[in-house]
Specification:
With 73 residues, this protein is mainly alpha-helical. The chain is built from three helices and two strands, in the order αββαα. A two-stranded antiparallel sheet has the order 1-2. The relative contact order is 0.21.
């Protein structure tokens, strides 16, 4: 299966590339919010979870970028 077919694979009527971009952004925002939430005392989130969220966000964003570039190459 070609990367362009994977990029445009439909999930709930929208391409997979769109879902990966949204999920990547959300995970990066969650990772960025964890120190702020801990500092304000709203939620106690460990550094281990912060790094996990950041790693997942980076991986999803890289997959999104690879699929986005594959459409144009």
């Amino acid at each position: 299966m070609e990367l362009t077919q994977i990029a445009y694979f439909q999930i709930l009527g929208k391409p997979l590339m769109l879902h990966l971009g949204i999920l990547g952004l959300l995970f990066i925002l969650f990772a960025a919010a964890t120190p702020w939430l801990s500092r304000k005392g709203i939620a106690k989130i460990s550094l281990q979870w912060h790094t996990r969220l950041a790693a997942i966000g980076i991986i999803l964003s890289l997959l999104h970028a690879i699929l986005g570039i594959s459409v144009y190459l």
